[in-house]
Design a protein that fits this description.
Distance between the termini: 15 Å
Number of helices: 0
Shape: elongated
Radius of gyration: 19 Å
Structural class: mainly beta
C-alpha cells in the first residue's frame, strides 16, 4: 500500500516504514505528524482525489533535522572583472511514515 502526499507544495510517495527527506518542517524531532493532503491511495485499487482523497490521512514521525551538502553558486562575466561566489546548504527534515489510513 502506498500514497502520494503533498508536503509544503511538493509531492512524495509514502509507504509504510519508509524514510522521506522533505523540506524543513517546524516541528520538534520525535513528534507525530498527521498529513491530510493525500492525492492518491493505492492498495490494489487506486483512489485518486480531486484534489485530495476524502477521509485519507498519513501518520508520520519526525526523526531529525539535517543540512544537505554545500553547493557553490559562482557567477562571472568574462573580461569585466566580475566574480561572485556564494555557498548554500539546504535544510531538510527526515520523517518516517507510520500508517496510511483511508476511512
Amino acid at each position: 500500500m502506498y500514497a502520494l502526499v503533498e508536503i509544503k507544495g511538493k509531492q512524495y510517495k509514502a509507504e509504510k516504514d519508509v524514510l522521506l527527506k522533505v523540506d524543513l518542517l517546524d516541528v520538534e524531532p520525535g513528534s507525530m505528524l498527521n498529513i491530510d493532503s493525500v492525492l492518491l491511495v493505492s492498495d490494489g485499487v487506486v483512489s485518486v482525489g480531486a484534489p485530495y482523497v476524502a477521509g485519507a490521512h498519513v501518520t508520520a514521525t519526525v526523526e531529525s533535522h539535517e543540512k544537505d551538502k554545500k553547493i557553490i553558486v559562482f557567477k562571472y562575466k568574462p573580461k569585466k572583472d566580475y566574480r561572485r561566489k556564494q555557498g548554500h546548504r539546504q535544510r531538510y527534515s527526515i520523517i518516517r511514515i507510520k500508517d496510511i489510513a483511508v476511512v
